[in-house]
Specification:
The complex is a heterodimer of chains A (about 375) and B (about 400).
Chain A: H1 3-11, H2 15-42, H3 44-48, E1 53-58, E2 66-67, H4 69-75, E3 80-88, E4 91-92, E5 102-105, H5 107-113, E6 118-119, H6 122-130, E7 134-138, H7 139-145, E8 152-157, E9 168-179, E10 189-192, H8 193-199, E11 206-207, E12 209-214, H9 220-230, E13 238-242, H10 243-254, H11 257-286, H12 288-296, H13 301-336, H14 349-376, H15 379-385
Helix pairs in contact in A: 1-13, 2-11, 2-13, 11-14, 12-15, 13-14
Chain B: H1 2-17, H2 23-55, E1 62-67, E2 78-79, H3 80-87, E3 102-114, E4 120-128, H4 132-135, E5 140-144, E6 153-157, H5 158-163, E7 164-165, E8 172-175, E9 178-187, E10 197-200, H6 201-207, E11 213-214, E12 216-220, H7 227-235, E13 242-246, H8 247-291, H9 293-301, H10 306-336, E14 340-344, E15 350-354, H11 359-386, H12 389-394
Parallel strand pairs in B: 4-10, 6-9
Antiparallel strand pairs in B: 1-12, 1-13, 2-11, 3-4, 3-7, 3-12, 5-9, 6-10, 8-9, 14-15
């Protein structure tokens, strides 16, 4: 009979109690896995940001427009490797509830600036440059709606209308963009700015915002100061920031998601700390005589300590690992849900690693005091007690 | 019957008195249930507070006119000609000098700095005309004065000041290259308008390069029934491809999206946590039954029935659950009720709102606690009732 077997036998001596504790630990770790995955999904924009990418927006607010003339002026700034521009389209498919991320872009510079994020086949790139009504669709969006290259899709806008009065534009899907890095979200569609600007009924020659890549990230500060100074005191002043800072500020607009996650996960862990800690203490007290017998048989105090700690750690792992498994399953279901606005959550290896560290910590914290008591137990008093 | 009640009373008293022997285990159950109730109530108070702010903003006798399909004020565009045609429509209340009570408005988004995160956030700047405050009810300037027509002056909502910095009375604010002065603070009965900045319409139009462009028209109706005639008037004019709805309906639609999301997070989380707490409660109650095996057997031996043993255990569990639920509700009330925060609303701007815990929400929390207590006590209670007397006495 080795020590592991002894630990296992001890843990399941009261089967129902062990199972109940495992369930409560499992629930806490499932909550941990899902919520941390949610938080990470919200911060994905910040993580996907390239260090040498800057965003130029109207200083009043990023929803205010800039003149198209700024594009060439920014392009000429020293330290700017490439710049591209965007217009938010306010798109939806069939029903306003099916909100889509659709933007009008300048195709060549767009694929140049975002080359480190996206993989687009050369023939798809060519078609995107050539086809006036062509649209490049991210893999996630194409999968969601079952779109393939060559499909014609009508996309309506809740902001713009065509000069003809139509509220909808027909696009031909010319290519599917795949992600080059795991953090990149491919739930988007982009189409030619030239086509957009010619057909829309108002706002001509205006753009939404620009994204630029510097020749080196050490020039970021200098470039953003130069750009903003260039347009100071004009009708359209600009504010230039790193893509990372911009994305971070945007997520902060939704609310303090990190705080909500911390509070809920904290509540879940306090619950299991109390339940498991007290139950471990109770079950070691109940086993005072057995431990005394082990010691009589020659088990050293340290070995008894290891046995009790091992039991607590085993319990934490037996509850925690399936809990993370359930979190991964929930993440999978959420990813496939047709709901809008649901971020693409995933239980990543670093969440698993964090969870295992927490399981070990939980085992040690809940097992330590009972284990120390068991180690210090005097055989004579323990056997005399009953 | 009387003797059964007496037996239940006696068994329950023994149960409750014995809690002190399992004090820590019982406390951990109470705390677990309290935390479950807190998580649920915090989410519900957040959802309710948000919904109350948004939904409370709309009047049933004010109609809002938006360009067809635009859904939110920020997306809409309305021309001067269209504004004129709407003002000529039927069912619109008149001012004392006979003009239609209508307000054409421009809604632009400007940056503000959120106090809590020190990051930029989207704030609404609403250009309103003479009738802006009259079409709505309950607009009151609480400090300073209203902006004067034709000047670069703004008045700021009371809620906005709380969450965003740089808009104190007398302060100068820059939106791009234009300079504005805060001349007043206003209240709007806790509605979403308190999260806005207001300025004179023509000044906003000119400084934001939107001359002759409007985004919405609000009109005060003769009564809620006047909506239908106005609607058909707009539908029958080919120059007006516009959506007309009551302001109440407009804001109710907006509130639904976000509160739905908050509730879809809150209930599943609370139910998952309740399962964890349930495991703790079952554990505690089984320990209670095991610890009192001899007592239960003794009671049975002196003539107590199985039901009092069952009831005593179940009541002990319910008492622990009610204490947990009450602690959770009181803690949520003390920590979260009235807590002010802001999030991005449907118009892509910050909406400031307070968490609001109502008796109806607390009832939901207590019910969840009771369900945990009921299930957590039921199975151990059945075990207590079925406990064989002889082996119990030798236990």
């Amino acid at each position: 009979m080795n020590d592991f077997m002894l630990i296992r036998k001890n843990l399941f001596a009261k089967k129902l109690r062990a199972i109940l504790m495992i369930v409560s630990i499992l629930v806490a770790f499932a909550i941990f896995g899902v919520l941390v995955a949610f938080e990470k999904a919200f911060n994905a924009g910040e993580e996907a940001a390239e260090a040498d990418r800057l965003v130029v927006v109207n200083k009043i607010n990023f929803t205010q427009p800039l003149p198209i003339a700024y594009f060439n002026r920014v392009r000429a700034v020293e330290g700017v490797r490439q710049v591209t521009h965007f217009n938010w389209f306010g798109g939806y498919y069939q029903d306003p509830k099916n909100f889509l991320i659709v933007m009008a872009v300048e195709p060549r510079t767009y694929l140049d600036v975002y080359g480190s994020d996206l993989i687009v086949a050369p023939e798809a790139q060519e078609a995107f440059f050539r086809e006036r009504t062509g649209a490049l669709v991210g893999e996630a969006m194409a999968e969601k709606w079952g779109w393939k290259v060559g499909d014609r899709v009508p996309i309506a806008s809740n902001i713009f209308s065509q000069k003809s009065g139509a509220r909808s534009w027909d696009f031909t899907i010319v290519g599917i963009a795949k992600k080059r890095k795991p953090q990149v979200d491919t739930n988007f569609m982009v189409f030619q700015y030239a086509y957009f600007d010619e057909t829309r009924s108002f706002g001509k020659d205006m753009i939404g915002w620009m994204a630029l890549q510097t020749t080196s990230m050490s020039l970021n500060d200098q470039v953003s100061k130069t750009v903003d100074a260039m347009f100071a005191n004009s009708l359209y002043e600009t504010s230039t920031d790193t893509e990372k800072a911009f994305n971070k500020a945007f997520v902060a607009q939704l609310g303090n998601i990190a705080l909500i996650v911390t509070l809920v996960v904290g509540a879940a862990f306090v619950t299991i700390l109390m339940i498991v800690g007290n139950t471990m203490a109770l079950s070691i007290r109940e086993r005072t005589r057995q431990i005394a017998v082990l010691k009589t048989l020659g088990f050293s105090g340290q070995r008894v300590l290891r046995l009790v700690l091992g039991e607590a750690v085993l319990l934490a792992l037996l509850g925690g690992l399936p809990g993370i498994g359930i979190a991964a399953l929930v993440a999978l279901l959420v990813r496939e849900s047709p709901q809008q606005f649901v971020p693409k959550i995933a239980v990543t290896p670093d969440i698993l690693f964090m969870a295992i560290v927490l399981m070990l910590a939980l085992g040690f914290v809940t097992g330590l005091i009972p284990a120390l008591n068991a180690m210090r137990l005097k055989i004579a008093t323990a056997l005399g007690r009953g | 019957m009387r003797s059964l009640l007496l037996q239940i009373g006696a068994a329950t008293t023994i149960n409750l008195k014995s809690i002190s022997q399992r004090l820590w285990l019982s406390i951990s159950t109470v705390v677990a249930i309290a935390l479950v109730v807190m998580v649920l109530l915090a989410f519900l108070a957040m959802a309710y507070g948000f919904a109350r702010t948004i939904a409370g903003s709309g009047a049933p006798d004010v109609a809002i006119v938006l360009r067809g399909g635009s859904q939110a004020e920020v997306n809409s565009v309305i021309t001067r000609d269209q504004v004129r045609l709407i003002e000529e429509g039927p069912g619109i209340a008149k001012t004392t000098d006979g003009k239609p009570l209508a307000s054409a408005e421009l809604y632009v988004i400007v940056d503000g700095v959120k106090r809590s995160s020190q990051t930029k956030a989207n704030l609404p700047l609403r250009g309103v005309g003479q009738e802006g405050a009259n079409v709505r009810r309950g607009i009151a300037v609480t400090a300073g004065r209203m902006f004067s027509p034709g000047s670069n002056e703004i008045v700021v909502g009371k809620a906005l000041i709380r969450e965003f910095q740089g808009f104190d009375l007398g302060q100068s604010v820059k939106f791009g290259s234009s300079q504005w002065t805060v001349v007043g603070l206003f209240e709007a009965e806790g509605s979403v308008f308190e999260s806005e900045i207001w300025a004179d319409l023509p000044v906003v139009q000119s400084l934001f390069n939107r001359n002759n462009v409007f985004q919405t028209v609000r009109v005060r109706l003769d009564g809620p029934s006047a909506l239908a005639p106005l609607k058909s008037y707009v539908e029958n004019d080919p120059r007006l491809k516009l959506d007309v709805k009551t302001e109440a309906q407009y804001f109710a639609d907006q509130a639904a999206q976000t509160t739905d999301l908050i509730q879809k997070l809150g209930w599943p989380l609370a139910i998952a946590m309740a399962l964890g707490a349930l495991a703790g409660a079952l554990n505690t109650m089984y320990s209670s039954v095991a610890a009192r095996a001899t007592e239960i057997a003794t009671l049975r031996a002196i003539g107590f029935g199985a039901f009092p043993a069952f009831a005593g255990t179940l009541i002990e569990s319910l008492v622990l659950a009610v204490i947990g639920g009450a602690v959770g509700a009181v803690a949520t009330y003390l920590i979260f009720d009235g807590f002010s925060t802001s999030t991005l609303g449907a118009s892509f701007t910050q909406v400031v709102f307070n968490f609001s815990l109502t008796p109806a929400l607390i009832a939901q929390g207590i019910i969840l606690a009771l369900v945990v207590g009921l299930i957590g006590g039921l199975f151990p209670a059945i075990r207590a009732a079925r406990m064989p007397i002889v082996s119990g006495l030798y236990g």
